[in-house]
Amino acid sequence: MKKRNALLVLWISVCVLSLNSFAQPKGGTQKIKSSLTREYIYPTRIVWQKGEIAHAGKLLEKGIGQASLNNSNIIILKNKGTDTASILLDFGKELHGSLEIITGMWPAPNNARTIRVRFGESVSETMAELGEHGSTNDHAIRDFKLMLPWLGKAQTGESGFRFVRIDLLDKDAVLQLKEVRAVSTNRDIPYLGSFKSSDERLNKIWQTGAYTVHLNMQDYLWDGIKRDRLVWVGDLHPEVSTVNTVFGYNEVVPKSLDLARNTTPLPGWMSGISTYSMWWIILHYDWYMHHGDLNYLKEQKDYLQSLLKQIVGKVQNGKEKMDGNRFLDWPSSKDTIAIHAGLQAMTIWSLEKGAELCLVMGEEATARLCKETVSKLRTVVPPHNNSKQAAALLSITGMLNPQTAFEEVLSVGGAKNFSTFYGYYMLEAMAKAGKYQEAMDIISTYWGAMLDLGATTFWEDFNMDWLQNAGRIDEMTLPGKVDIHAAYGDYCYVGHRHSFCHGWASGPTVWLSQHVLGIQLAGPGGTTFRVSPNLGNLSFAEGTYPTSLGTIYVKHTKDRKGKVVSIVKAPKGIRIVK
């Protein structure tokens, strides 16, 4: 009896194992949980429509995302002959995600309907044909045909957009739409940092920079949600600075830094650009200073030391001799004299920060090599060639007197010749010269001009010369006005290929928190800070700054005599020093 029971137990075990083998495919199933969430957003207005369309206004009403047999609240597009019914929707702000369309019950249910969808970061982009004014499907498909089912729903692929144009393509056809909504894909994370002042324009600029980077915090930290949806390491520096200022620690940063390292075996340069590998070093320094993760830093040790030695090997007689793509930013890319000055400064900056990281890890020999090389580099100060990019980097690294940099270069022409990427470092150089109000004026003029044109995120590039007679990006271009998205752009971003949501343009968000609120990191690990406000003409400024132990709160107010009175509240464990 006992033997029979034992055999029965053995038989049941074999059956269970067999069932498990059918349930689990060979090799197992990998599940990766996404850090991203989905949010449904409905259009806020109809910009334009053409042809026979009934009840179009219902598209602006919030729905339930479900087709219904009662066929209520239906929008009808009707084509007669070769006429095409078309509609252009505005979702109110730049988004990253897809489009979901819920349909009704048109006649002849066996026949699907074909539409053309065009995403746009501007109204102009949605109205262009592929190839016209740089309109492209690079990186994200934003101009395509889509089949819609009868009484169902369909969803598109993802891109960066604010505007959507829909054209019914079938001849002599009727299309019934119940809802058209955007499916926004983003990280559902709180804005721990904040900024509010007596200047509402600066407040909006701070928030726009933060939102621009938030949209680019996808699976990795991209520089653009339409183009490029890629990890470009130089672009990461302003973005990561914004992440630290607004969101605090987020796993997208180390994930992106590791991707850059893992896809760039030495002696290659990240993205083929020597300065981008230098930015990777500076980024790790900033990340360690903010978060103090020594174990993560030590994971970089072998690569970091080899990269530092590679950079040292490109220095001859105190001059940088970097190979690869010699690049600072797009507007300076034809100025070889400025690029050399910028590379000289970047080499110093990266080797100095690399030396500090090596000392933290106990790698004194590599740190000594970096410091010796920096001493040689500092004996050679290349001319800045009146480049604001070069002058800013030379000032930041102590190669050019900050007052001289401001008076001879940075102040010339005000916001003229600023750039969205290196504008951050120009602002930093102005702060070194104590020119805080002048920097706020530049922020208001340069970044504020994009807002004046209808932007809800900051652009890949912007030139003050473009403002002359420019039309808004959220309107059809009026006669006599310049279509700013179609008409301008350069290098790889001509016309509509130009990204209107580019994280490297978020520098003012960081600058305003660090220099107006005055909250600055003063020691490694993100637990020691200095608060030194600079209000300029502002009557007050207040805000928060994230740390691993909670948020620092400050409020600075001018009294009747113009003296700044400050309130500073820091969480337990955070030290505020003078």
UniProtKB/TrEMBL annotation:
Domain Alpha-L-rhamnosidase six-hairpin glycosidase: 192-369
Keywords: Hydrolase, Signal
Name of the protein described by the UniProt record: Family 78 glycoside hydrolase catalytic domain
Pfam families assigned to the protein according to its UniProt record, in alphabetical order: Bac_rhamnosid6H
InterPro entries associated with the record: 6-hairpin_glycosidase_sf, 6hp_glycosidase-like_sf, Bac_rhamnosid6H
Lineage: Bacteria, Pseudomonadati, Bacteroidota, Chitinophagia, Chitinophagales
GO molecular function, one term: hydrolase activity
Signal peptide, first to last residue: 1-23
